[in-house]
Structure formats: C-alpha cells, structure tokens
UniProtKB/TrEMBL annotation, chains A, B, C, D:
Pathway: Amino-acid biosynthesis; ergothioneine biosynthesis. It comes from the Bacteria. Residues 182-318, 343-419 form the Sulfatase-modifying factor enzyme-like domain. Residues 15-148 form the DinB-like domain. Keywords: Iron, Oxidoreductase. This is Ergothioneine biosynthesis protein EgtB.
Amino acid sequence: MTRGTWTPDTLIARYDEVRSHTERLAAPLSPEDQTVQSMPDVSPTKWHRAHVTWFFETFVLADHEPGFAPFQDQYWFLFNSYYEAVGPRYARAARGVISRPGAHDVGIYRGNVDARVRDLVSTLDHGALEKLTSTIELGFHHEQQHQELLLMDIKHVLSLNPLQPVYGGAPSAPTEPDRLGWVDVEGGLVEIGHRGAGFSFDNELPEHQVYLEPYRLADRLVTNGEWLAFMADGGYRRADLWLSDGWARVQSEGWRAPFYWVEADGVWLEHTLHGTWPVDPGLPVGHVSHYEADAYAAWAGKRLPTEAEWEHGVRAAGGDVTGNLADLETYHPRAAGPATGRLRQAYGDCWEWTSSAYLPYPGFHPADGAIGEYNGKFMSGQMVLRGGCALTPAGHTRPSYRNFFPPGSRWALSGVRLADGGAPTGGVAR
Amino acid sequence: MTRGTWTPDTLIARYDEVRSHTERLAAPLSPEDQTVQSMPDVSPTKWHRAHVTWFFETFVLADHEPGFAPFQDQYWFLFNSYYEAVGPRYARAARGVISRPGAHDVGIYRGNVDARVRDLVSTLDHGALEKLTSTIELGFHHEQQHQELLLMDIKHVLSLNPLQPVYGGAPSAPTEPDRLGWVDVEGGLVEIGHRGAGFSFDNELPEHQVYLEPYRLADRLVTNGEWLAFMADGGYRRADLWLSDGWARVQSEGWRAPFYWVEADGVWLEHTLHGTWPVDPGLPVGHVSHYEADAYAAWAGKRLPTEAEWEHGVRAAGGDVTGNLADLETYHPRAAGPATGRLRQAYGDCWEWTSSAYLPYPGFHPADGAIGEYNGKFMSGQMVLRGGCALTPAGHTRPSYRNFFPPGSRWALSGVRLADGGAPTGGVAR
Amino acid sequence: MTRGTWTPDTLIARYDEVRSHTERLAAPLSPEDQTVQSMPDVSPTKWHRAHVTWFFETFVLADHEPGFAPFQDQYWFLFNSYYEAVGPRYARAARGVISRPGAHDVGIYRGNVDARVRDLVSTLDHGALEKLTSTIELGFHHEQQHQELLLMDIKHVLSLNPLQPVYGGAPSAPTEPDRLGWVDVEGGLVEIGHRGAGFSFDNELPEHQVYLEPYRLADRLVTNGEWLAFMADGGYRRADLWLSDGWARVQSEGWRAPFYWVEADGVWLEHTLHGTWPVDPGLPVGHVSHYEADAYAAWAGKRLPTEAEWEHGVRAAGGDVTGNLADLETYHPRAAGPATGRLRQAYGDCWEWTSSAYLPYPGFHPADGAIGEYNGKFMSGQMVLRGGCALTPAGHTRPSYRNFFPPGSRWALSGVRLADGGAPTGGVAR
Amino acid sequence: MTRGTWTPDTLIARYDEVRSHTERLAAPLSPEDQTVQSMPDVSPTKWHRAHVTWFFETFVLADHEPGFAPFQDQYWFLFNSYYEAVGPRYARAARGVISRPGAHDVGIYRGNVDARVRDLVSTLDHGALEKLTSTIELGFHHEQQHQELLLMDIKHVLSLNPLQPVYGGAPSAPTEPDRLGWVDVEGGLVEIGHRGAGFSFDNELPEHQVYLEPYRLADRLVTNGEWLAFMADGGYRRADLWLSDGWARVQSEGWRAPFYWVEADGVWLEHTLHGTWPVDPGLPVGHVSHYEADAYAAWAGKRLPTEAEWEHGVRAAGGDVTGNLADLETYHPRAAGPATGRLRQAYGDCWEWTSSAYLPYPGFHPADGAIGEYNGKFMSGQMVLRGGCALTPAGHTRPSYRNFFPPGSRWALSGVRLADGGAPTGGVAR
C-alpha cells in the first residue's frame, strides 16, 4: 500500500510527529472525559490512544523486536479493535466500562512502545527496515484516522452533557450563504483509483476504468441556510422525498433536524466542539446521514454524485485543496468563500456522501494476514464518502480516499455536495 | 414501463390467466395456513391474494371506474403494502393478527374486482384504454411477484410446523454433482438495461453503458455437495472468509448451514415444499444469504459476479432459458444436466446473488405518482439478485430483471453462481 | 385437591358438560379466528381446544389407559403449555405460526380423547377410578380456566381488527352509576383458605389463620363513570399517584385509559365482544392493570383490599353470588343494581385486584409429579385477583379462589373494588 | 420517621462523621473508576458522592437557607435520582456518559454544601431546627445506604476489568463449613415493625400484629461449600427446583453459579473487592438472586423465612449483632464461627432473602411531599431482604429494617438463611 521513500531518521521524525499530535488532541480532556463511551459507535479517548499504540506493538514490534513480549498481556486483548486473526478481543460496546488502565497509564504505555519502535527502526538493517516501512507508514495513517475519530467521538460525549462543555476552538464570524454555482465535467472512459508512488489504503486500488456520462457538480457544499429551507418546506415530514429505510429512521428516531441541532425557544442551536451556538446559515450543514443527504437532493431536484464522479470531478475541475482546517484548530467547517470556478470545500469541511455503496474495485485484493482485515471485510452495508472534514488531520486527504459509514450514521462530520445530469436523477418523485 | 400491444380481449384474457394462477397456488392451503405470518418478512397467503387485488382496485379502478367506491373501506387500509401516497396503512409485521376477512371473504373480494376490471376494460374507449394498459400490465407483473412470494412465504410457514406439512411437488431422483465448467466473456464498453418493446420495471431503465474487464462465469450454480464441502472445511467457523456484517450474523443467529437445513442423527435434511428430505448433493444450494454466498466464493478462491457481468454474460454466452420450473410444479431447483458450453440454470432454479448493491441506473427516474414508490425508494441496503427461481411464474424472467434483498436475507430461494477474473477477486484472504 | 363424590355416570356426564361448553364457545369463530395469536399472552382458540384435551390425554389416559399411545406424537409437544416434567414443549410465543392441526383437526382430536376417557371411566374398577377422579376433576376446572381465557384471548384478537368483528352478546341498556356504599367488616384472627369437601386448587390450601384489623369494603366495583373522573383529573399524568413500576409503564406504553378504550372525535369507545360501543358510565370499569387500580385507589384516598380482607369480607358480609353472567351469555360486566347492604358484583363481573402478592400460604405444599407445576412455580412477580368475571364459566367461582396476573397485565377482565381502614392506606401521597 | 434527640453540635458532629466516611470509601478510586456505570443498576462513584450531597441541598438547604440558590443549576437535574416532585431528572441508565463534573469537581460541590449545612444548623433557632432535624437525620441514613451501594457498584465495575483490580481488604484464612444448627421459635400473635424512639424509615411503620405458626430458623447462612453441593447435584439444571420466572432467567442468562463466580481450569474463583480468589467453602454464599435462594431452599427440602419470621426470630432468639464487618474494612462476609445457640451472621455478612414481597404494612402512610417518594412507590415487584451485609456501614442495621430488590437481582451482597416448619414449605416438588 505504500511506495514512499524513507530513511530511519525521516521515519522516526514522522513517527514522533504523528504520535505527539494524538497526545496534543487528548490534552484538553480530563481523565473522566477520556473514559466515557457515549454510544457503541463511540470509543473512549483513552481507548483510541491505547489502540493506535497496540497497532504498532502488534504489527510492528511483535514480529520484529528481538525477545518481544507484550507490555501488558491483557492490553493485547483490550485494545484489539476488530482483528479476528490476532485473537479474541474485548467487546466494542463495553469499552466504556473499563476504568483501568487510566488516562495516565495509557500515557506510560504509549511512551514504552514509542521508545521500542524508535529502537527497532534505528537498529534494523536496511533490508529488514524496507520490509517493515509499509506497515509503519500504515500505522501513521491508521493513527490519523483515529485522531479524526477521537474528535468526532468526544464531540458526541460532550454534547450529551447538560453543562455544555467546550473542547476548543471558537465560533467564526456569522456569514451569509453564497450563491451555489455549478462546475461542468466531461465524462467518458476515465481512470479511477490511487495512482503514483504515495501512500494509499488497499481499498483505493487498483486504478481502473469507469464510463461516465457528462455531469456537473455543485461548486460548494449545501449550507445550513439551505437546510433550514428544506426543513421549513416539510423536508422531514414528506415520505415522498425519502428512501424507505431513511423514512423508517425519521419516524423511529424522531429526526427533524441534523444530528447536533437542538431547538430552544424557536431558535436552532448547534452543539459544536466550541460549545452550543446558534446555527450559522452560511456554514456547510454537517452531521447529516446519507438518508438525509439523499432526501435533500430529491427535494432540490438534484442528486448525490457517485464516488467516481466525485473523484474524477475533483481531478478534472480542480479541488480546493489548500488549508486543511485541522491546522487552524477550528474543529468546524468554514464558509465557502467567494466562487472560483473550481470545486470549493472539497477536503477540509465535511465528508461528502456519495450515491455509491462501499464495494471492492474490480481486481481488488486485500493484503495478506491480519492487516488484510483493515478494509475489505467492511465492504457491505455502507456508503462511500469522499473528501475530508474539519477534524481530519493535515496531510490525510487525497482524491482517491474512500471513507465509508452506514447510511444512517450521523455522528461523523458528514455533509452534502449536489450533482446533476448524467448519472441518476431521483427528482422530487422518489 | 411497457411498450406492449394489447386489445381489450387479449388484455382480459391475460388478466384472467394471471389472476387464476394465484388462486391455483392458494388452492392447496387451508384457511388456517392462509392466515399465518411466521415472521415480519412473510405475509399470509390471504393477504397476498387480497393485496394484489387491492393493487388493481387502487391503481386501475379508483381513477377510471365511473362512480367508483371501494369494495370495503377498511380493505383500502388493510391491503396497502407500502404506498405512502395512498394513505395510512396497516402495520406490516402485524398482518398475521387479522383473522378477517377470511380466506373465503378474500375470494369474494377478488371476484368483485375481477368483474369490475373486465367491465372497465370492455367499456373504455381506445384512447383511455391505451393510457391504462401500462398500469394493468404492471399489475400482472406485480401479481406474478406475489405469486413467487406466496410460495416462499408458505414454505417458511410450513417449515416451522413439527407436523412437516407438504404443499405440493415431489422430490426428484437423487443426482450426482456435475463438474463445474467456466464460460469466458469478453468485456469492453457494453450495454446494460432493458431494451426493446416488452415490459420492464422502471429499475431496469435506462439502458446505459458500463465498462467491463474480461471475465468468466461458472456454467452452473453451486451445488449442495459443494456446500457440504465448504461446511466440512469450517466454512461457518472461519472469520477470515466472511464480511464483517456477515460474521456478526453467523454468531448472533448461530448459522451453520443453509436456512432450511436441519441436522438429524448426523444427516442433513432440508425442508422443502414437498416435505423434509435428505439433502441431495447434486441439486443447487438454495436459501443462502448474500453473506454466505460471498463467504463461499472467498473459500473457493473466486468471487460473485457484478450484476452487469451477469446480464452481459447471459446475453453474450447464452442463458439456458427453456423450461421455467414453475410450469413443472416441482417448486424446487433441479440438477444442472449435462454441460452445454452455455450458462446452465440461469432462470428457473435459484435467484443468483451478485456483488452489486441495488442502486439506481445512471439517469434513472421513478414513475410519477404512487406507482413511483414501486422500486426507487428501496434502493438502499440491498443487494441485486439476477435470474429467477423454481418458484418464479412462467414468463416473469428476462436478462435485465433486477431482484433485490437485504444481504442477510435467507427465506428467498437464492443461490450462488461464481465468477472469476476481471472484476473484484476476494480470494481466501478476506 | 378434591373431596367430591362421583360415580362413573356423574363423572362422564360432567365431563361431557364441560367439554361441550368449550366447543360451544368456539362455535362462532372461523378457522382463521381460531388460528391467530395476537400477542405472546394470548393463545389461539384452537390451541386452547387442543391443550385442554392434551391435559386429559397426558394426565388421565397416559398412565391408565391399557396400551396407551398418543393420538399424535407431535401433539404431545405442541400442546404442552408449561409442564417441564412432561418433556420439551413448543415455544409459547410462537403458537400463532402453527396452522396445522387446523380447527377441524382439533375437533377430531377432541372426539378421540373424549371417547377414550369415557371408555376408561366406564371400565376402571372402583379403587382405580377413585384415585383417578381427582385428576379428572382437576381437568374440569383446568378446562374451565381455559374457557375463560379463550374468551379473553379472542376479545384481544378481534379488537385489533379494523373491521370490528362481533363475537356475540349485545350491549345492555345505558345505566347511571349507583352511589357507592361501604360494608364494615370486623377483623381479628380469621380463617382463610379453602374449607369443606368441594374442589379447590392446591394454592387455596391449607386453611390458616390471619390477623386483620377492622376494615370496610366498597359495596360495588368502581364504574366507568368514576374512571372518567379520574382521567379528567389527570389520573394518567400525575406521577405522585403511581407505583414507580406503574408510572414507567404509563410512559413507555402511553397508557391514558383502560386497555380497550379508544377515543374517536372526543368520545370514548370500548372494544367489547359485542363490538365497539360508547363507554357506559354505569358499568364497572374493566381491563385495568394492578398499577392502574392502585393509582385509582390512591387518587380516591382509599386503597385496594388484601386478599384476606376480600375473602373474609365476602364470607362475613355476604357476597352477591347469584347469577354468573356466563349463563347469560352477555360476555360483559353488568350494572351493580340497587344497594343491598351486601357486597355486590362479587363474582360475575370483573376479577378484583387485591394488594396481595401471589405467594404460598403457610404450609403450602404443591402436588407430587407434573401436576405440582400447576400453581406453585408461578408464585413470583404476580398479584392476586379475587372473585370472577363475566367470562368465567358458571360454577367456577368460590370465596377462596386465587386468580393471579402480573401487575401490568390488562387483557384479563380485571376491575377494582376499594377498601378502607385497617390495612394500608396509600392516600394521595404515594 | 425519627424521634432522636439532637443538639446543633451533635448533629454537626454526626453530619461530619457520615459525610467523611463517604469520602473515605471513594478515596482508593481513580477519577476513571468513579466515572464508569457498568450496567443500569450501577451508578458511578462520583454520582453517588454528588447525589447524597444533592439530597441535603434539596431537602435541607432549599427550603431553609436564607437566599438559597443552587450551587449549580444543572446539578439539580443531574443528581436527582427519582424524585418526580422535584422536577425532571437525568436518565438513570445514562449516568455513565456524563464526564463532568469530574471527581474533583464533585469534591468541591460536597465542600460547599457541607459548609452551608453547618452554617444553617448553627444559626437556626431551636424550633426551626427541631423541624429540620428529622430530614437531616434521614439524610444521614440515606447517605449510608449509598455508602453500601457505592461499594456494591464499584465491585461490579472492577469485576468486569480483565486487569482484576483490587479495591481493598484482603482474603481471610480458609475455613471449613460449620455444622448447620436450628433455632426454634414460638409463633402466635406477634408484633412486627419499628418500635421505640430511634430512627426508622417510613416503610418499617406502623408496628402491627401478625399471626405466626411455630417455626425454626437456621443458625447461620448457607455456605459456599453447601452451594457447591447444590451445583454438583444439578441445582442449575433441574427445572423442578425453580420458580417459573427464575427458571426462565437461568436459561436466558445462562446462570450456573453465583454472580461473581468464574470457573478457570475446573476451579471456581470469586471476584471480590480484594481481587479474584478461589471460592472459600466455609464462607457464606453471596450475590445470589431470590430465585436462586428459593431454588436452593427447595433442593434442601426447606424454605425461606417470611420477613415477619425473620424479624420476630431475631428479636426472640437473639441476633448476633456485634461487630459490623464494615468497621473491619474486610468488605466480605466472614465465617460463622462456633455455634452459640443464637442466630449467627444476622447483620454483617449478607442481606438475607425472605419469601415476602415488599408491600406496605397495614396502615402504612408515606411522608408528605417529595420525601414521600422515598419508599412507598417501590412497593411492587420486589422481595424483602433482612439483616445487613459486610458492606453496610456501622450503625445502619436494626431488626425492623426492610431492604428490597427485584427477585432476579444479583449484584447486591445477598445470601440465604433457611427456615422450616410453620409457614410455607416448598419441598423438592416445586
């Protein structure tokens, strides 16, 4: 999955950079904050910190460190997320009942593994290191995924607390919704998937051909203001706009607004990592499910793009790739800014739901061994999201990146970009 | 959705043919048999008989019959399956608690609507009839779908009864599994979707281009004998073969064999519509979920075909279309017979799971009005099956037909055809 | 449990009487009606008819009939209700998925067992018969219990049907609520439990002493009119009136009126066995849970009687025992009629919730063998009801009879008689 | 509920004593330990610490402190356990998702309320104080109940952790089971309930007469060794020994030993607050449900005592009241010690299940206002336990004390004392 060029020094430097970023993200959180699992999808902060460490211990140290022994036998069991091949594992939904190791103990575990990884990298001969590098690099990207999850998860934990705790960041100045523009894209037989020497996950491979009719993509994400119009027009009450499964969820879970919106005295507020604030109509809507995204598109007389349309469109029409929000530590999408004729907000604001189910590319082959469980076994019952979001760490996005969640999932920072022409048009008459 | 040519006489003749076939299928069933709903997916026989009647009453008579009034106000509510636009409807999972109207009363309802439809067709002027024909034709195909469901559903009802009741048919002579052959198919930019003047559902449209790498398809379905080998090799105990969602179901529901198989004194028996019999190794395996089909393919080092590969393959390599089993009233798949160099068992034995999620074709547009709810709103969380099965009524299959079920579904008569090359290869290392 | 005197002739005559009454009750019901199980607590009519037959086959014929063989092996399994000692049994909640044996087949089963029981009774010698008589007599009372349940259960089945089917009976003329009077009862050390030579269940034994403070009992049941006043005063919205478990049910199940009441255009209607009719304020309220009965008593500043108070009160103050409603085939409680200074409506209208948990009497000892499972093992989590109801067959009531249901149960025909003084007074301040 | 004599000084001294004991119990626990809710019945340690503080703030300060304002508005909502009259409250089952206030913040809250209560008591005039004293005293006993719960709850939390954390205490030297003796008790018309000037809860009142047949009580609790014999004899596999509800739980939850027992390599170990140790056959069995206690008694051919028998027996035959284990900080039952002719282990080892449902005493009247919700509304669906346990704080036990839990509850430290004669004898034939 990797074709990068690393020396022991650059590998250790990058290792330290990635690892310390995790600790920086956890720093504002108390031991109690780090312990809570607010729903089965969410993991405690200290679990994230320990699990990414377990990944290096299991896949890097275990097979290569001379005289390897686990730091703590039970951690092997506690911090395995889903790798069946590695042995039995602790039940996901019960991560919140494990008070020990505490946040401080996890820090000690991290320090121990860090020292051992540095040692190993420094002492391996060239050939051995070359073989190990791709796993270490996978560990970097794995930890970055958990950095994003750590923020999504703690957002949920804090949102449930009536004391309205603040994690960090600050609200931006109120904005006005910008006019939506469209970018036309020629279709044809196009190349999709990861290309070149850089890192990718196995699910982005192999590069392959897909035939596309001509289409167009909205040049920015759907805004809160537009979403309020959808709500005002009965968007959550009109069965005709919804997929059947989506409509069932609207009713069983009482959806009437995006996940973190709450109504107080007739005003819509939004839980954010910087507290609970009035909804800003100029910012992109976030924390909507695929079902909601699809219903909105039907209401707007448009559709969601396929993942191939998204990827080809970003490559062809130019994505706005500068400035990951994660660097800004705002932890929230920003306004689109003035139109540029290119695709705005393609990476740093909200993950973008596509109309594509998460399935293997033609010729896909998972990696050998336990690492092969990384992606392939989840190719069922999920939809692809593309781009990135304001919680994604810098350097973790690329045009071929395939994120995925079940269509009813709302706690991820997921938003909507519309498409039109060419591929499926649901129209109002769902 | 239709482009057929009908006269009032041929329309009425076909109407009578379709309608009487439903009654013929229900004839062996007692009033009690027709009342039971054995799980939420299953509907009582008398509900099927009434619902297909309601379809004609609602979509044909209501808007066109002079002085229309419903046969019974409450039937309007009781026999609406899922059409939100038609008004509130009775809860699906509680169809089995409605003892009245009884089986005999449903017959009276059917007779009443039949007479009124015949009257209407006989008296409409040419222009009006032309507009109505496509809805009536849709009603035929709708009723045929329920004929198949009626048999799948009563199979489940009777299978739960310790008295082991027989619906009909008889076991075939025991057979030996035939050697599996492969049919090579050239890929390229191919046409997929319904073409020509005949009837199709809206989800088979529009015809469109898809790019395929070269591939090959197994020339027959996976057999019970092969499935027993999969089981003997730990197929239901090896997590590495399974999609994550599938493995969770294996464990939560204790799957260890196809849906209707039961072990007695070390011998595997199978509930069928002709009673409970030892599993015949030469017959196609049926009543397996998509998860099981996918795990089997991984075990075999092969994969499932995409729906485009299936459709193009059947067209290019020649499907074995003769002899729908429904005509034979065996109600069970048959053995493959000798190899022919073409694709055997393509229509009349088991619906074939593909690796494609059920999604709209590029440019898909559902019909206007309530009829638009027929297909489009279900395009979420389901997988496509192709072909047909031994319970499918004669004349109801075609290359472009898209059946669909959730990936964990097992009560449909669904089986497995392997593919290889070109598109995704899961291999053993899931 | 019995001390009656029977000859073969009187035993057979009574047998025929009891058995034919069951068939009379089932006669108005179609095969479909007899098949439905509308919730786990409810059993299909044909199951009741078969189960009481199984009881005679299992406990009378199996051990005494020369060359005994079951009528049908699987019936042994299908129609065992809860006797662990008799072997495995079919799952209670799935009785509604068994379409066969059908209603007609059950009739054949009944006829077969009836003939064999008559034969056995006619041919046994005196000593053997004497030993068997108490089991046969238990079978009579067991079947009577199921006669009552059959009516309660079919009431529920038909109530769910939007066609509002009628079982039988007819509404009585509207009545006005009668003024509530009180009957004073002296306390002291009193005798409780079954006495004398007649039949009783084991749970009514042994007769024993209980100390009671002086108390008084309402001379009639709480009426629908009084219940409407309770509702109008926020009875279902005031947590302070309710037991904690009861309040949880009010909220989780949305209780706002008795079980069979439905509001239509501001008027309260009630599902009855003679159809859906406006609530009659003069009739006793029925189908309320223990929680509701207790909350009503708290609202009224009174309390429910203990079972000892009820039994002693009925004996001391004179129960109104004439005229079981079952004889009248009204299938519904009647109005109290003019005050008499005695306890009105003590047997034939609604089972009366007491404040006593269903527990063994001091010195209680269940019968030996499987019959010992009849009562004792249910002495947990249930409350005692006393008296009888309009669905109880004639001759099935007595002062010491202990009926029991979980406190949240509402589908039984259960009502409320208030008590005051002596024992616990909840008052408004629950 | 109190008739004690207090001065401001003795009241403050006792207040400080009770309050500081809570903090002493929490001291060994990390912030993470104090945050976890391992199941809905369990509350986080920091919640217990805050809730008992809320009790004083709500029922003592709110109505009497001049210029009262809550320490923190949201605490009012977060730390209300179940008092409907005080306003809305936070969902019990979600106490574990609230990370803030943290353990340290709760300490600040406690200090603030402590200072204010001391101030109030010091400054109130004599008459006002007299009225308030009974509420303050109730607060002491309320906090003591939570001290016991805090230990029961953290025992559960730590037991789930594969790291096997230790709270405190140490295992005692292994012991041999002592021979079981019996203490005969005369029956008759006896007085039950709280008497005299000391504190009691409202549910222990009023004192009243109950008639008892002569009976006898085991002179010690059932031991682990005896329980192992019950298990070896198929105790958890014989339906005939169990109440129907109990047998259903055995099967649905897979019970095969007491709650905290785990089998490892054929040896039974027990989770305790001092770690996981082999089961000591001489110690009393603990953490068994009422269902298990009842099944054990049936197996032993004995029965459980009624609560009246227990209370009268302890008074008549002399309970062994010296030495609450809580003082010893062993946190675990001890061996019975040599027979004395009196009832051993009556208070300090395991709460003792009785055969009595938790119901109001004759003439019971809950207190006015929100405090009236303390006991009365829970008188449904629970069984009475008597005595006390090794986690009960010193000074919190008395003969009339009525503890209560649902019959399936196992996480409380509950054990078994057998009775015989007089009252109900289940015998083997349940």
